[in-house]
Each structure stands twice: as structure tokens, then as C-alpha cells.
Amino acid sequence: MAGLEIPAWDPETALLIGTILLEAIVLYVGYGGLERLLGPYLMKILLGGEEHAR
Prior knowledge:
Blueprint: H1 11-47
């Protein structure tokens, strides 16, 4: 049956996929932290005034 075989993974491919997944997680967490730290400040600057900084 064509297409139902289990592909053979070589270590380089598994390492590359793991590295890309780890990088995506680090970027997701990093940008989330930056948004929490700088988001209210930037909204205050861009929109002007305290009422929009919530």
C-alpha cells in the first residue's frame, strides 16, 4: 500500500524540528513578556491619556 509506510527519521531532521519548536516557544514567551511590560506604556503614549492605558 503506497503512502502508509512509517517514515524513517534521521537524527539531523529530528534535531532541526526540535530546534525550530524550541525557538518558537521562546519567541512566544518572550514577546508575551514584552507585551505585558511595555504594552500599557506604549498604549498610553500612542493613545494619550490615562483612560486608555487599562
